[in-house]
Amino acid sequence: MLKSRKELDAELDGAARAWLDGALAEAAHDATAREAARSQADVGAGTTPPGSPYASPPWELRYAAAGRHCGPAHADSVRSLLLIEARAPLPSVTRLYEQGTAAERRAVLLTLDRLGLGDRALPLVEDALRTNDTRLVAAAVGPYAAAHLDPHAWRHAVLKCLFTGVPVDAVARLGERARGDAELARMLRDFAAERTAAGRDVPADLRTALALALTTPAAPTEES
Fold it and tell me: Mean per-residue pLDDT for 21-48?
């Protein structure tokens, strides 16, 4: 669970709070510089505008160092705050994901729904769902995936959770998206049959998801 700045300030020591103050100031400065550059009609020839795919602003280095300065237990929250404060553009988000450790990638995935990127960051979610790293899979099926994955990809994300042992509670809006989904119900039944035929247990979470998929959606009312 991501913590707020107020919660972090209450838990970090003085050195860590000072480091975080500096990191967030750098992130805010980068956001302001990028907005100023966009407002100009031209960028001088031969210069690289802030936030371009070729420029790595200082706060990105802070992102990688968050665990070292604020502790592993707070790293996700610190990295998320940096992304939000920087109003991180897609090039930065993609760079931090592609070049980061599993922990750094997880923080990107956990923050995607707060960055206003629309569906442009879906390739990062899709990449995480191709891994068998349960930390990444669990982070990838959060609110961003619930809002932007198409039905086919979302159903396979649910199956990925079952396959890797990620609790389906991690799937954002599971009750909403699974309810009455006949195709998901078929896929879950097939998965259960495969497990049974192989002499393997059927995850209890599969029954939870299947019950939702078999539930008839509520009929719309005149007010809805």
Answer: 79
Q: Report the pLDDT value the prediction gives residue 220, as an integer from 0 to 100.
A: 54
**What confidence category does residue 39 fall into, taking pLDDT thresholds of 50, 70 and 90?**
confident
Q: Which two tokens stand for residue 90?
A: 């897609």
